[in-house]
Recover the amino acids of this structure.
């Protein structure tokens, strides 16, 4: 979000603004939220979604798009072409948006970004009141609503805006930050229907956190370490701090408070975060999904000296970009065979072998596949258990095997004669039956 190297704003937070409910003008309500709010509004809360990855963008001399799991481990990285004040997925997770930061007077641009490569795929000029913010547009809060509209904030205005991503036309959102507070974090649609908004009084102070109610009233519920981006996974909110920490917000009160909210740092990255997002920020339940399946050639029996070719296929079966990471345990293969040097290849992503484990990591677009291939040669003589058994297992959120047996391959090493050699007095079939009987015993 906000470039924390910027000088402090000449704004101060007045004590009267802190912790008060702000009545805001505007007849329009949050229709997407009021239909799904809970508790005091008498309507039903959203169901909690399964976990989904967290995405963040860094800037300055450290400009990357980074995908994290909900423990803070890095799943993927991609270079970015510019600084974005924030990023946001569309409600179905199929499109990633970014807004240039800080922009210039009268000018801002909404970009679509390929989450696999970090490349820009489209650019739409932003018009309307957001583009008129001076001295710069400085958009540094962006998220999708469930209806597809984008909520945006500016470092140079207390007003909150809506952007139509199809046209770039901005309008005023029917709520605003209190006087003296501007956007420096993000907007998250909570499971109870409220919108969580992160603000700032200047470029260094902790971030006040607000709930925007369906009636468009705004209430501060506490503060967190200065936050430049936020993302939601499985109902939990993660704040991306200016010092590079990824903080899990342990509680989100519903009553007015200016106290520090409890947070747990899941990872101290040291990165210069500008923004963050997930596919669940709009209140939708989009989750990654991918399958893996493996096969081998030959398929059942081999002889000493034979070469076996394995292939693991990964497919993104969901609607959003997803990591398809997996591991393949080769310990019960390499006691009977030797990995062929240079045989490990992948059509995309990165495959490595460490000890007896092959690991693949990569991010796939919806519908995309990756094929990982490697070869082993059965030892002569085979001093192992004469059975090559290995199992591939998904290691990223949303992964599964295509069937219950699709991830495991078992190949037996014949104990008998090589039936392909000429000179036997009995036929090939009889030779194979003799070998199979020997294998069983």
């Amino acid at each position: 979000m906000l470039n924390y190297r910027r000088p402090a704003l000449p704004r101060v937070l007045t004590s009267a603004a802190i912790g008060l409910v702000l009545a805001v003008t505007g007849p329009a309500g949050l229709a997407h939220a009021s239909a799904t709010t809970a508790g005091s509004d008498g309507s039903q809360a959203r169901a909690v979604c399964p976990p989904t990855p967290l995405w963040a963008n860094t800037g300055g001399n450290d400009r990357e798009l980074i995908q994290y799991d909900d423990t803070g481990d890095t799943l993927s990285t991609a270079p970015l072409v510019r600084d974005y004040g924030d990023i946001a997925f569309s409600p179905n997770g199929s499109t990633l948006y970014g807004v240039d930061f800080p922009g210039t007077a009268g000018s801002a641009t909404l970009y679509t970004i390929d989450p696999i490569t970090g490349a820009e795929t489209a650019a739409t000029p932003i018009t309307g009141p957001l583009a008129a913010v001076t001295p710069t547009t400085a958009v540094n809060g962006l998220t999708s609503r469930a209806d597809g509209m984008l909520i945006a904030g500016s470092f140079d205005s207390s007003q909150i805006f809506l952007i139509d991503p199809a046209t770039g036309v901005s309008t005023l959102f029917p709520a605003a930050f209190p006087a003296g507070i501007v956007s420096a974090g993000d907007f998250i649609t909570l499971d109870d229907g409220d919108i969580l908004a992160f603000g700032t009084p200047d470029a260094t102070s902790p971030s006040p956190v607000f709930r925007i109610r369906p009636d468009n009233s705004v209430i501060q519920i506490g503060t967190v370490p200065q936050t430049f981006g936020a993302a939601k996974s499985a109902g939990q909110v993660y704040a991306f701090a200016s010092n590079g920490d990824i903080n899990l917000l342990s509680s989100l009160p519903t009553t007015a408070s200016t106290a520090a909210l409890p947070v747990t740092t899941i990872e101290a990255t040291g990165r210069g975060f500008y923004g963050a997002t997930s596919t669940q920020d709009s209140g939708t339940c989009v989750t990654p999904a991918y399958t893996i399946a493996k096969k081998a050639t030959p398929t059942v029996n081999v002889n000493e000296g034979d070469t076996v070719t394995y292939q693991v296929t990964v497919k993104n079966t969901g609607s959003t970009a997803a990591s398809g990471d997996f591991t393949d345990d080769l310990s019960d293969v390499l006691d009977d065979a030797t990995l062929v040097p240079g045989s490990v290849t992948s059509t995309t992503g990165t495959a490595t072998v460490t000890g007896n484990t092959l690991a693949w990591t990569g991010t796939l677009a919806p519908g995309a596949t990756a094929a990982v291939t490697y070869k082993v040669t059965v030892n002569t003589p085979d001093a192992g258990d004469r059975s090559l058994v290995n199992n591939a297992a998904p290691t990223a959120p949303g992964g599964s095997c295509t069937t219950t047996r699709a991830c495991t391959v078992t190949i037996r090493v014949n104990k008998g004669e090589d039936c392909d050699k000429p000179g036997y007095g009995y036929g090939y079939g009889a030779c194979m039956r003799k070998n199979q009987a020997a294998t069983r015993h």
Q: What stands out?
A: Residues 428-440 form the longest helix (13 residues). The domain at 21-277 is CATH 2.120.10 (Neuraminidase).
